[in-house]
Specification:
With about 425 residues, the chain is α/β, with parallel strands linked by helices. About 30% of the residues lie in helices and about 15% in strands. An eight-stranded mixed sheet has the order 6-5-7-1-8-11-4-12, sandwiched between helices. It has a two-stranded antiparallel sheet with strand order 2-3. Strands 9-10 form a two-stranded antiparallel sheet. Strand 2 and strand 3 form a beta hairpin. Helix 1 crosses helix 7, helix 6 runs antiparallel to helix 7 and helix 9 runs parallel beside helix 10. About 50% of the residues are buried. The N terminus is likely disordered.
Length: about 425
């Protein structure tokens, strides 16, 4: 069985979901213009539960140059550490984040076993290593499914991926798949083309056809198909879609987050958290720095600094940070050794992740690596541990068990152990 992040055991794909969105749009009316609304009720957009924002550094960032610097060593590179409002010293290219580190903690003791992009991405998103017999659900899908009863009034998707595709719902089904938008909140191919009366006629006909198919007992695909279509139509009609309209933000807010795709993605994430979305992922790619690492960091770190610091500060000012977990990581770190192309290669043995908010302890530097950054000294932490920490902060029981399509029971977060220092 393939482990493509677009494929699920039920034979449906995330692209299929988006095609549904485009197809359903052709059933709609111009009065239902997707992503636009005249007015949204404030009560509808009021958050009443916790959320997680995953800032995904796609490609594997050199955390040794960001969160766990080794100055004056052969592996240290040219960047220097600066003091912060927490325990950790971080890169001089992250001065705005340095002011927010009392809200965030650096886990410098990540040690994971997958140094391949595809396998590492899967492992860090699911808490499970790839297995040919099962496709596991991602963080976002698990949290969306587990918080479903708490967000019964939420009409927009409970799992939104901004600027990238994320990992899929696995055996949980397409109802919990990531809903992908660009950094400005736009969804492609979603312009309605017919009148409302025609919409209702076509939906009724489609429901009849799918009902007949489902009665033939051809597996779960028909039911999943109907769920996706129902969610799509509800989404098109929802006033809550105003949350995706970043253009409603004042110029000062846009400037605060920065004129970059990542900055706009972080601003959109804040809007979705306010709307009550349980899980938002912001994809910031381009971290596969095998060559010219430090020249590229001069461009990338200021974008990360402005967007992430604005998100933390903004959530705090709005009274949302206590109920919003922020997690920043990639699929692994990069080698302490600097290669002949002034780059760093894949390295999963010792690296750092940053986490905070959601009632977790901020301002900490958890764990340590050796003087040259090549190994974790003392207790190390896995993807499972990090995911268990996030799930506990979200109020999810770590005793929760799922049953895969082949009947295998699995514990939430891969049975990981929460990082005790973060829990206070």
């Amino acid at each position: 069985m393939s482990h493509s992040r677009h494929q699920t055991p039920r034979g449906m794909t995330r692209r299929h979901f988006l095609d549904h969105l485009a197809g359903a749009a052709t059933l709609g009316t111009t009065a239902l213009a997707f992503g636009r609304t005249v007015e949204a009720a404030a009560a509808t957009l009021r958050r009443q539960h916790k959320s997680t924002v995953l800032l995904w550094m796609n490609g594997g960032p050199p955390t040794i140059d960001m969160w766990d610097l080794k100055p004056n060593t052969p592996t240290g590179g040219p960047l220097k550490p600066i003091a912060t409002t927490g325990e950790a010293l971080i890169s001089e290219r992250l001065p705005l984040l340095a002011k927010q580190m009392h809200h965030l903690s650096v886990v410098r003791s990540m040690s994971t076993r997958e140094a391949d992009h595809t396998r590492g991405r899967y492992y860090l998103h699911t808490g499970f290593v790839p297995n040919p017999n099962v496709v596991h659900p991602s963080y976002g899908s698990v949290i969306a499914q587990q918080t479903e009863s708490l967000v019964s009034g939420l009409e927009i998707p409970p799992f939104v991926s901004i600027g990238g595709s994320s990992e899929g719902p696995g055996f949980l089904g397409m109802a919990y798949a990531p809903f992908q938008v660009d950094e400005s909140g736009r969804v492609r191919d979603a312009q309605p083309l017919v009148e409302a009366e025609r919409l209702n006629e076509r939906l009724a006909l489609l429901a009849e056809i799918e009902g007949r198919f489902a009665k033939q007992r051809r597996g779960a695909a028909a039911g999943e198909h109907a769920k996706v279509l129902g969610k799509t139509v509800s989404l098109m009609r929802s006033d809550q879609m105003v949350a995706f309209d970043v253009d409603q933000e004042p110029s000062a807010a846009k400037e605060r987050y920065g004129d970059s795709g990542f900055g706009r993605g972080c601003l959109l994430a804040r809007r979705l958290v306010e709307a009550g979305v349980p899980f938002v992922e912001v994809d910031f790619g381009g971290w596969d720095l095998h060559a010219g690492c430090f020249d590229q960091l001069d461009q990338k770190l200021p974008q990360l600094d402005q967007g992430m610091s604005a998100l933390v500060e903004d959530l705090q000012e709005r009274g949302l940070l206590q109920d919003t977990v922020i997690l920043c990581m990639g699929e692994f770190g990069r080698t302490p050794r600097i290669n002949g192309d002034a780059g760093r290669d894949h390295y999963a043995r010792a690296w750092s992740a940053v986490v905070g908010g959601g009632g977790l302890q901020g301002g900490l530097a958890i764990g340590q690596t050796s003087a040259d950054g090549t190994a974790v000294e003392g207790e190390s932490h896995s993807s499972e541990d990090l995911m268990a920490t996030v799930c506990q902060a979200m109020g999810l029981s770590l005793d929760t068990k799922f049953t895969s399509l082949n009947g295998r029971p699995m514990k939430i977060a891969g049975g990981g152990t929460p990082i005790r220092q973060l829990l206070g």
